[in-house]
């Protein structure tokens, strides 16, 4: 009977048993549906008392345990845990655990766990273990479940407790290092930070033979710290995620004020996600309202640079609102965020460099520099120029910034060439300096062309085989800076006997050589600048040598010609 009704149905099956003193009859029952049976017996038309037969439950095979996991304790103990099967009816279960480090064929070691949902295992490091659990009920005729799905454990030489944790900047964190080899000695542990920085031994000590403990202050900068307790670098480490750590995020608005680039500096290997929110209010108001717990602003799109070295994200088009920017790092414990930065684009403008830079050296000993400042920002700009002489590379002299598009500085030599660059910045001092303009060379502003050319001598070397001579002009020391003009160089003019003229422009050198074919030839040397060349110059006449001993060196400046002399100088 499966119900509570007293009108039990009577079986149509009649059993007849013959015996003298006692009898035994067998009755077939469907135990899958029937839990108890009332039996009535007639003996020679005499009704015996009703007999109640209780049918014992058929043994049920449970499902295997699920969700296997393991932890290590600070006592260097490894605990395997699992969950009981979902169809468990409430009877007490007992468990068996088997594990093996061999694949084919596996050599199983079996451990009983009775009614507990965990067991301690003694595993060796650097071996991959396959682990399974099964269960059965506490009945007289138990049936074991199938073995659970395989669970794998591989122990490194070192384990850390916890493997990962979240801390605030400057907060103390305690980490345990478990040395999994039975012959290990925790007193030999040497803790280091971020793969290379040894930590003070006073921060750590052994807990027992195989466990070392350190209490460490989480960094105030960066997204996480990595701790390890051995000299050899291995994959296991303890990661201290820093929630709210400082990362230097720098945002720069371009000179056209339509794009803002935000860059950051961090040493972590992980690729961080750059996130932002913007709100139509001042940054002070946005920060204060968020501090009070209010959710303000619109979340911007996520920016994830594809490469480790790419640490920049761009806002375009740009809103003139307040931007809140921060970095995120996914972890097993949730998202880790750095300290946010609030940025107003107009306060972080890097103007375009100035154009049309014109440096001029005045005859009064003043270097005057003019330029065209960039158009933005419209609130005004201050500009600064730097300079150095062309002969001294990259030894810059800086002048004070001005709010007008020109500046002057005294210089010792108006004829020197100066290299000049200019940059600009917002008048209030906020934002950034522009890049320096292109280097421009100064030009001296002379009042007139040079008055006279240089004095010189000549030196002659004859080649008897070719009827040619090598002529070298030796110039008298000639200053580049005169009272009212500068000299940029010399012009050597050659005039042949047929009237052809060749002019060569040279620097202010001490000598100049050329080949002469020993025919009548006239040479004139002029001094020149940007306004013209001198007209009062020294002239030299070269002609064939007379039959007398050749003179080696003569002064260029002569008033008259002596017989046989090859050098004629005239003003």
From TrEMBL:
Task: Identify the domain of life.
Answer: Eukaryota
**Record's bilayer topology term:** Single-pass type I membrane protein
Which is one Pfam family of this protein? Answer: fn3
The protein's matches in InterPro entries, at most eight in alphabetical order, are given as:
FN3_dom (IPR003961), FN3_sf (IPR036116), Ig-like_fold (IPR013783), LEP-R_IGD (IPR041182)
Where found in the cell? Membrane
Keywords on record:
Glycoprotein, Membrane, Receptor, Signal, Transmembrane, Transmembrane helix
Q: Which PROSITE patterns match?
A: FN3
Domain Fibronectin type-III positions? 61-158, 353-446
Per its UniProt record, what SMART domains does this chain match?
A: FN3
Asked if the record carries the keyword Nucleus, the reply is no
UniProt-recorded name of the protein: Fibronectin type-III domain-containing protein
Species this protein is from: Characodon lateralis
Lineage of producing organism: Eukaryota, Metazoa, Chordata, Craniata, Vertebrata
């Amino acid at each position: 009977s499966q119900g509570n009704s007293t009108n039990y149905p009577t079986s149509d099956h009649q059993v007849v048993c013959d015996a003298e003193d006692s009898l035994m009859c067998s009755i077939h029952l469907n135990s899958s549906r029937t839990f108890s049976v009332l039996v009535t017996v007639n003996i020679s038309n005499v009704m015996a008392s009703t007999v109640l037969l209780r049918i014992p439950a058929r043994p049920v095979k449970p499902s295997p345990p699920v969700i296997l996991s393991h932890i290590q304790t600070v006592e260097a103990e490894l605990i395997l845990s699992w969950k009981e099967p979902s169809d468990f009816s409430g009877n007490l279960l007992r468990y068996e655990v088997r594990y093996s480090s061999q694949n084919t064929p596996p050599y199983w070691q079996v451990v009983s766990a009775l009614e507990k949902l965990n067991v301690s295992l003694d595993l060796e490091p650097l071996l991959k273990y396959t682990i399974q659990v099964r269960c059965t009920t506490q009945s007289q005729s138990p049936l074991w479940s199938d073995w659970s799905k395989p669970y794998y454990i591989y122990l490194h030489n070192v384990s850390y407790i916890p493997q990962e944790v979240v801390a605030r900047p400057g907060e103390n964190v305690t980490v345990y290092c478990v040395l999994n080899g039975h012959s290990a000695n925790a007193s030999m542990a040497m803790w280091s930070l971020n793969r290379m920085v040894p930590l003070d031994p006073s921060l750590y000590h052994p807990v027992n033979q195989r466990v070392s403990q350190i209490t460490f202050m989480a960094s105030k900068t960066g997204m996480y710290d990595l701790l390890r307790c051995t000299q050899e670098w291995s994959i296991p480490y303890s990661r201290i995620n820093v929630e709210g750590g400082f990362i230097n995020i720098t945002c720069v608005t371009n000179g056209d004020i339509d794009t803002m680039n935000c860059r950051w500096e961090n040493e972590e290997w992980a690729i961080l996600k750059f996130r932002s929110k913007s709100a139509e209010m001042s940054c002070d108001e946005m920060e204060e309202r968020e501090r009070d717990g209010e959710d303000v602003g619109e979340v911007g799109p996520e920016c994830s640079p594809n490469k480790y070295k790419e640490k920049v994200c761009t806002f375009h088009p740009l809103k003139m609102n307040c931007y809140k920017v921060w970095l995120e790092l996914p972890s097993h414990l949730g998202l880790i965020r750095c300290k946010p930065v609030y940025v107003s684009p107009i306060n972080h403008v890097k103007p375009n460099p100035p154009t049309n830079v014109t440096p001029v050296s005045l005859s009064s000993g003043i270097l005057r520099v003019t330029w065209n400042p960039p158009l933005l920002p419209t609130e005004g700009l201050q500009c600064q120029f730097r300079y150095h002489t062309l002969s001294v590379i990259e030894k810059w002299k800086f002048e004070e910034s001005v709010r007008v598009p020109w500046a002057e500085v005294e210089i010792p030599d108006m004829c020197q060439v100066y290299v000049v660059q200019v940059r600009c910045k917002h008048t209030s001092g906020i934002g950034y300096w522009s890049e320096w303009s292109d280097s421009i060379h100064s030009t001296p502003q002379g009042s007139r062309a040079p008055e006279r050319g240089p004095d010189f001598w000549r030196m002659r070397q004859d080649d008897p085989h070719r009827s040619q001579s090598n002529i070298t002009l030796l110039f008298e020391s000639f200053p580049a800076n005169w009272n009212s003009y500068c000299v940029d160089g010399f012009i050597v003019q050659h005039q042949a006997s047929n009237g052809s003229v060749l002019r060569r422009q040279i620097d202010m050198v001490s000598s100049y050589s050329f080949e002469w074919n020993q025919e009548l030839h006239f040479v004139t040397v002029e001094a020149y600048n940007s306004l013209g060349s001198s007209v009062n110059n020294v002239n030299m006449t070269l002609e064939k040598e007379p039959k007398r001993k050749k003179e080696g060196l003569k002064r260029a400046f002569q008033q008259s010609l002596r017989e046989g002399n090859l050098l004629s100088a005239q003003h």
